[in-house]
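quick one, two chains, predict together pls
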Amino acid sequence: GAVVSQHPSRVICKSGTSVKIECRSLDFQATTMFWYRQFPKQSLMLMATSNEGSKATYEQGVEKDKFLINHASLTLSTLTVTSAHPEDSSFYICSARGDSVTQHFGDGTRLSIL
Amino acid sequence: SQELEQSPQSLIVQEGKNLTINCTSSKTLYGLYWYKQKYGEGLIFLMMLQKGGEEKSHEKITAKLDEKKQQSSLHITASQPSHAGIYLCGAEERQGGSEKLVFGKGTKLTVNP
């Protein structure tokens, strides 16, 4: 149980493109979803927390207009990187939490902006 | 804010050897999580500890939380190549009503056959 699916697993696109990443909880309802970013050899850095039906809470230093988060249902949250640039290249990973306090993670999305 | 320090940063062991990874917090731990990550992949939940002195085991992996709830250790017995990966500890940071996780930088484990 507690499976989280993240799609796509890898994206390569040109600078200026907007990229959407989906995070789905497959077998439970996720009241809260989290989006992280991970740089090489670094830990996960929380970008934002989203609760179903409400606006996401962004961490300090994360541009909300750059990283649009939508949590439209209890099983789906999306992260859109708008007008992506090479510095946005990174590994993005989502997690979902249902009734238990444990966060369950997706497999991540490797974003490469050329 | 809470900071987690993991040691060692990397570890290379021979198959069959035991090993321990430590996670030390700057503040009291309300919930301590251990995850395993393979490079470029998601995190696999291993165990969660909440009470001082708590110990949990799953197969050959044992995690402990000290009585003061500021340090946790992850012990692997008779390591196998399948144990290789990056082990991350994460702690609940209760701040302003939100319960988010703060992670350590990870310990990269290599198990040589």
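The interface with chain A takes residues 31, 33, 35, 40-45, 48, 88, 90, 92, 98-106 of chain B (CB under 8 Å).
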